[in-house]
Amino acid sequence: MKYSVDTYRLYSSEKFFSFCIRVRVTMKDEVDIDVLRKSANTAMHRYQYFAKEVVIGEDGGYDLIPNKREIIVLKTPEKLPNLCSEEVNRHLLFLDCTGRDIFFNISHSMCGGKGMMPWLQTILYQYVADKYGITPYAPGIRKTDSDLLPGETDEPTLDMLLNEEPIYEYKSKKPVVMLLDYLNGMYNPFKRDPIYYQFTFEQSDIMSFAKNNDSSVAAFFLMTLAMALNKVLPEKYKVIGGETAHFPGADIGLPNSYHDILSHVHIDYDRKYFRYDVERLGTYTRSQIILQADPTVSNYQLRKQFNFLEKIDEISGQKNKIAAYAKNDPSSGKEAQHGTFISNYTGWADFGEVANYIESLFAMVDGHLLLETLSMSDKIFLSFMQLIKDTKYVNAFCEVMDELGIPYKMEGPFPNVRPKHQLPHE
């Protein structure tokens, strides 16, 4: 039996299929939908591991099987089609476009941002080549006729993981969780209004600040959002918690795997920490990332996840699996660890000359006070996501940037509308 995060989601209840990654790429020229359709389907010859549909397996769990039908590319409609529906040929992905925007939609059950980015880059490379009749110089992009990288489709197994005591184990200081915001954002139709803002930064500005303040790009956005929340949250909340995802693939011999193999880094900021200077705050944040990204720590987290999956795997029947998962879900029990916000950084992507044809790219998922950061060429692109339309959080974030002297361009808010899933049932 192989275990991965996509297995983790496939075995669980349908709530995990509600998550779709939607990336907005704004080109410098109007998008030609016919060329894009051709390019997207050409690129899929290399990414057959994404050409899947969902079925009910013999044991009642959700399985992925090959899907040879065309990848759908459509004009952005008023209502997006469901993933897995006939409208998108039952695929877990599709593209839509309008004006200069291309939207890439893919089920989070397939991969995360790291696994999605090479597919997106290949399509954009092929699109630029097809539309303009050129061969862009982009050695960092996987071409449609290139071989798969070693281990690109490999899933992690339990025996790959270190079985050592972690050098560190995070003990939560019980940071404030935005419970009322979440409840309103999830269930109150009068308050729910998922939105995102787009922030564009010069990479040199962020890197210069990070270098001068013992920080990094990932640490910078963790500490600055924490600083922003310190401005607006009541003093009765003693701790503000940040959370970020870590990809430990290289530590288990799978640096090229597209699978969403993740551990999590938690950083609890006692309110007194915000009296520190920014260099000390940067040192604290970066050191926590380094400590919790240690292979013994990340593998310890993964081992617990995989052991949990093994128990779910032994259960037969979809309803029984869902019930067992709900009862023992490690993300919702008494020992579950939650932050006040999440800030993820996918890293810098090498687009080569293809970047000359792209104005911006922003990733959207589902969450409240959640940042997703992408980097291309000399720019950093950040999506600031909320479930309710309250400007105090984003205004405080802008205030922190102004105080630190970090220039930025802010756009939005835009509605964070993403596809849902349409799944088979027993």
What does this structure look like?
With 426 residues, the chain is α+β, with helices and mostly antiparallel strands. Helix content is 31%, strand content 24%. The protein has helices at 5-11, 33-43, 113-132, 179-187, 203-212, 217-232, 278-292, 295-313, 318-328, 391-404, and strands at residues 20-27, 52-56, 62-66, 73-75, 93-98, 101-107, 192-202, 239-246, 263-270, 341-349, 358-364, 370-376, 379-388, 409-415. The strands form three sheets. It has a seven-stranded mixed sheet with strand order 9-8-10-12-13-7-14. Strand 12 (370-376) and strand 13 (379-388) form a beta hairpin. The two termini are 22 Å apart. Residues 1-16 have low confidence and may be disordered.
Instruction: Describe the sheet with the most strands.
Output: 7 strands, mixed
- Spans of 5+ residues with little confidence (pLDDT < 50)? 1-16
Helix content: 25-40%
Radius of gyration over all CA atoms, rounded: 21 Å
Oligomerization: single chain
The averaged pLDDT comes out at 91
Q: Beta-strand level of the residues, as a percent range?
A: 15-25%
* Helix and strand pattern: HEHEEEEEHHEHHEEHHHEEEEHE
Number of strands: 14
Name the structural class: alpha+beta
Strand order of the largest sheet: 9-8-10-12-13-7-14
Number of helices: 10
What is the end-to-end distance?
Answer: 22 Å
Report the principal-axis shape. Answer: globular
